[in-house]
Amino acid sequence: MDAAKPTRTDAQSQNQNQRRPNLNPNPNSMSKKKKGGPISMDHVLLALQETKDERDLRIRALFDFFDAANLGYLDYPQIEAGLSALQIPSHYKYAKDLFKVCDANRDGRVDYNEFRRYMDDKELELYRIFQAIDVKHSGCILPEELWDALLKAGIEIDDEELARFVEHVDKDNNGIITFEEWRDFLLLYPHEATIENIYQHWERVCLVDIGEQAVIPEGISKHVHRGKYFIAGGIAGATSRTATAPLDRLKVVLQVQTTRASIVPAIKKIWKEGGFLGFFRGNGLNVVKVTPESAIKFYAYESLKNVIGDGRGKDKGDIGASGRLLAGGMAGAVAQSAIYPLDLVKTRLQTCECEGGKVPKLGKLTKDIWVQEGPRAFYKGLVPSLLGIIPYAGIELAAYETLKDMSKTYILQDTEPGPLVQLGCGTISGALGATCVYPLQVIRTRMQAQRSNAAAAYKGMSDVFWRTLQHEGYRGFYKGLFPNLLKVVPAASITYLVYETMKKRLDLE
């Protein structure tokens, strides 16, 4: 994030270049400075080769730049307009968060003292992390030092990406990052300036698996231990789906009932057919598909981000929220299509009538579908399944961001939400998204469960819709919704707990 200095003239720029710290100072003298006690504003002034009066003028000029209306204070529209005037890209534009952080007394406006306090705190914070990265104490960050810092944070990038990162911050293109450049890049970034946040601050972190879609932990695209993260996520997803399998089986049984569906009779029917284990029928396939679906979705997502970025003439990290939503939706469609036959066989296994309580063997069931209905039968219901992906993702994303903002405003007093709050937001938003597209799930399940050569077989998605609407009304599209929502909280909680446990076991923390 580049905080431009609106009042700087060319002469001032030359003077500032002359005042830049020596890039190759005596290491011994630097070591002595670092041992001189806690970091203070004097260290910042020394690094910038700037006097206190010069710094005061710079901060005042930046405040006046935002206060274009000469009100003597800043409100949200002024900060938003100021960031736009600085030509800060939209994915770096944290106007709302910046306003909240600066408005210390919560009176809806930011006076100069509040703005100055933010600048003091932010420059000290940025100097601390600058010093931590500058391990050679050269007064600047070298590309190899930045690479080492990212690697220590678990982020692995190649030489090309490192060069782009440095080039974006290094305004004079001399191949190194001075503290002035570092400060200008992050001065208006209102969140904590950790290495992870600096590199991936546009990515949200949420891990919620309610059994409907594969879960990919966000922010691991460049992680050096991403393989271990997949293992942790796979085990967490498998455990969660197994624990909530009875509710999933009940949901599917209710979805395919075309007569009046009631929970208690459905439970009795499942128990009568298979006893306790009857509630876990089909869970094996549900667990098996977790890892391949996640892997396919992950790699498709990364590839599609590149394609979208190339199409827009941008880097894949600069495709914006709409680009990420499109890439995520398309990646979900690719993953869903790839593992869909497993999903169909699972549904058939869960809904088939068992003579004498004997469950058909998986191999025989699969062979019968292939021989009697043909290979196309394995993709029955795929269209409504794919149609629900983008709306689900869009609703879930919008709800998640809204809930996260509300939690920051009303619960956390403008601090960043931790993992548990994010889990809660993700759980609620995921449940809301799943509810909105639930009619498509019912249509998909009914198409999957019915044999193609049955007497009253559905002719397609529209046929399922009209027959359901005609004979069951709108309520028919929400059969099984209650057990589906009932499993959301335990599924998300189990996923989170197991995932965190596995991260510790795999030395990811």
TrEMBL record:
GO MF term set: ADP transmembrane transporter activity; AMP transmembrane transporter activity; ATP transmembrane transporter activity; calcium ion binding; phosphate transmembrane transporter activity
Any matching Pfam family: EF-hand_7
Listed GO biological process terms: phosphate ion transmembrane transport
Topological type in the membrane: Multi-pass membrane protein
Placement of Solcar repeats on the sequence: 224-307, 319-406, 417-505
Signal peptide residues on this chain, from the entry's feature table: none
SMART domains: EFh
Composition-biased stretches (Low complexity): 14-28
Domain EF-hand, chain residue ranges per copy: 90-125, 126-156, 157-192
Coiled coil: none
UniProt keyword list: Calcium, Membrane, Metal-binding, Mitochondrion, Mitochondrion inner membrane, Repeat, Transmembrane, Transmembrane helix, Transport
InterPro entries: EF-hand-dom_pair (IPR011992), EF_Hand_1_Ca_BS (IPR018247), EF_hand_dom (IPR002048), MCP (IPR002067), MCP_dom_sf (IPR023395), MCP_transmembrane (IPR018108)
Domain of life: Eukaryota
GO cellular component, one term: mitochondrial inner membrane
The keyword Metal-binding is annotated on this UniProt entry: yes
Region annotation Disordered: where it falls in the sequence: 1-37
PROSITE patterns: EF_HAND_1, EF_HAND_2, SOLCAR
Name used for this protein in its record: EF-hand domain-containing protein
Organism of provenance: Lithocarpus litseifolius
